[in-house]
Write a structure and sequence with these properties.
65% helix; elongated; mainly alpha; 131 residues
Length: 131
């Protein structure tokens, strides 16, 4: 599971970089802005005069795949952490059960017919002040 999460995280970073590049290369509506500053004319040179439609379509698909991959990774990570937490909780419960003191039958109070079930008061070592 961890290998799959790491692989999908790497793919997510690649899609993120590709999406950022697509957004920067697109031509702006009024021929001014970030698109021209970061190579908007390069898109026209590479993809031709009608590259706006192709770039916007690729941007839509890249954004949809980015969103889908983010949701998939969130689900996988939550499932993985929940299963790890369940295993840790089980180990903690086993350790607590093993560390709990065992009840010694010789130390327990037994009831016998005719005897009272009250324990004797514990002796105190209190020192009384001299008068």
């Amino acid at each position: 599971m961890s290998l799959l999460i790491n692989l999908l995280s790497f793919v997510l970073v690649l899609i993120c970089l590709f999406l950022g590049l697509l957004i920067l290369v697109q031509l702006p509506k009024k021929e001014a802005g970030m698109g021209t500053a970061f190579g908007g004319d390069a898109a026209v040179a590479m993809f031709g005069a009608g590259s706006g439609n192709a770039l916007t379509t690729m941007t839509k698909y890249a954004a949809a795949s980015f969103l889908g991959l983010c949701l998939l990774l969130a689900t996988l990570t939550a499932h993985s952490s929940k299963s790890r937490a369940g295993g840790v909780q089980k180990e903690l419960n086993q350790a607590a059960a093993a560390a709990a003191p065992a009840v010694n039958p010789a130390m327990s109070l037994t009831t016998t017919p005719g005897a009272s079930n009250t324990a004797a008061p514990a002796p105190t070592n209190a020192v009384t002040p001299a008068k």
